[in-house]
Amino acid sequence: MQLILEPELAEQLRILYEDMERAYDSVAVQLDHSCNGCPDNCCDSYFLHHTYLEWAYLWQGLSLLSKEQSTAIMEKAYQYERESKAIIEQGERPGIMCPLNEAGKCVLYSHRFMVCRTHGVPASLTRPDGKTLRFPGCFRCQESLEKMGLKEEAVPVMERTQLLRRLAMLEQRFLEGRRHLAPRVKKTIASMLTSGPPELSHCSDLKDK
Ligand code: SF4
Ligand code: SF4
Questions:
Q1: How far does the centroid of ligand 1 lie from the alpha carbon of residue 88, in Å?
Q2: pLDDT tens digits, 115-137
Q3: pTM of the model
Q4: Which of 55, 60, 98 to mutate to test the pocket of ligand 2 (most atoms within 8 A of CB)?
Q5: Backbone phi and psi for residue 104, each to the nearest 5 degrees, phi listed first
């Protein structure tokens, strides 16, 4: 049975995504950082995503596209799966373009994932065990920082802790308070597409509760 994403929860996720964008932009503006003109495109980075909620929201976005568009995306997703499996079997990390990227642009920009909204600028995250992780930003951002000659303590950072907490709380609501019972999601976007929308069978422990 499919997990239903209620409109109110989808709206809460949309608001959270907007807050992520604002937090990202406020750092990017200070560093004069943008992806425009970048020789790289991070949409070919191998990222795994971890929430049933973002998975369901992705499918909600997909339903807004035309039949032709979504069929083309699904074909690319299956191809991504085949190719990435072969690369991983050779012990390497895939670098294949995300099936949602068309001519360098995200076709589901408003539904893109948290990782897509946070990668690029320097960031900080304090884990529940109190350990703080620092992320230096992408290579291009690091080049700009070098040119600016900022001391480490003066570098603005995107604080991810509260944003991630909010996402975890929304995920908990989506799974009706039983997040701890569900198998951990660890999927590429391609895999979230080829697997279909998240279902109770993806978290079988929830089925009989
Ligand atoms: S995040 Fe950085 S490396 Fe990635 S596309 Fe943007 S500028 Fe380029
Ligand atoms: S969802 Fe969009 S922004 Fe994220 S990797 Fe795919 S194409 Fe890029």
A1: 24
A2: 999 999 999 999 989 999 999 99
A3: 0.92
A4: 98
A5: 85, -5
